[in-house]
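job 3f2a | input accepted
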Amino acid sequence: MKLQNDGYYEEEHGSGSNMIYVYMVLIMSVVILGVTAIVFWVNSSKSRNDGSGYAAAVAQRDAQTAQSANTASGSAATVISDNKLTSDDLDIWTLPDTGRTTGGSKSNKNNGTVKNQTTGETVIEGSSEEESGDKAVTADELAKGKTSVYDMPDKENIKDEEDTQENDKKEEKDKEEESRIQVKRSDGTKEWVDLSQDIERNDYDYANLKYQKPVMNYFEEGKIVSKCGADISANQGDVDFSKLKKAGCDFVMIKIGARGYSSGNIVFDEKYKDNLKAAKKAGLDIGVYFCSQAVNKSEVREEADELLDAIADYDVKYPVAFVMETVEGDMARIEALNMEDRTSVAKAFLDRVYDEGYTPMLYGDKEWLLTMLDMERLSDYDVWYAQDSKEPDYPYEFGMWQYDSNTSVNGVSGKVAMSMSFTDYSK
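job 3f2a | predicted structure (427 res):
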């Protein structure tokens, strides 16, 4: 059949060419989009791996947020620049309370650098603070352990704790030493003796002692409150008691007698009567003592009765002392006694004296009193403590102190033992 119009064919042919072109454009677009998607995916992956884009965005966002907040509150406490930020300006840190100090302080400069933990790039490079009431905490201070964020102990606190521990140890040592005392025995050996908590301690201040040889005095509020005396027996020969008083003596302790350390016989001091009379005439207060070697209560009561009869006619106001000692270089009768026996003998003598209205007194040095007797049983009686020294070191209460056993004093031709009484027994 013959076509009537050739234009139809031309129109159809031209439409087919246009469709091909459209298809080619679509294919190219798909290809381009695919390549673009691949490139974008690669770049995105890389960006996620190194975190630079993210960190930078976060840092920028946070800086803008902080600046907006400061603007809204009207605060200008901290100036933030592009390269001068403190850890307080970065929300990324999410820091707890760092215990920053208050009060005025000088500016801190060049505190070091802080790097982003993800990217490794420098976030803070130095810092500069204006003087203010609050001190900002920089990141390198955190790194050096200056804040509690790392939960590390402060050096000063450690030192304070160490000092406290040292003080505690010292106090424990002092308490231990207060509960014991070292005693040097006559043979040169030393031993620690436990002290009783039931016996009253003396409270003398030995800084108040003043020794003007041969007289020792004790002061309170600038006044002499002690009394000075001399121990007198036949060994001193003829004593000028008036000169003795002028030399500074207020009283004398006169020996009445003794029991033989081997024979067991009682022997009176050959000059005791003369000494009692002369001392009274010179106006000196009188005390007496007896040297015992009794090995039982019966013997010691005999000694006490003999002494009491000897002093009955004299005005004895100062103590009546019980003296019991071992004998150097020889065996004494009392060395067979144990502590309980020695204590019982001493107590029997002191009780007898007390019953007759006199002031009983126990004589002895540190070794004798603390190692040879049970002082808890004898704590009701005054002590006459013997120690040649500038200061006594007897821990318990005592009324008299023999401070020099071999010295010279006006009125006595030979050597004499001098004593000081903290108590005026004449009253």
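job 3f2a | The mean pLDDT is 79.
job 3f2a | closed
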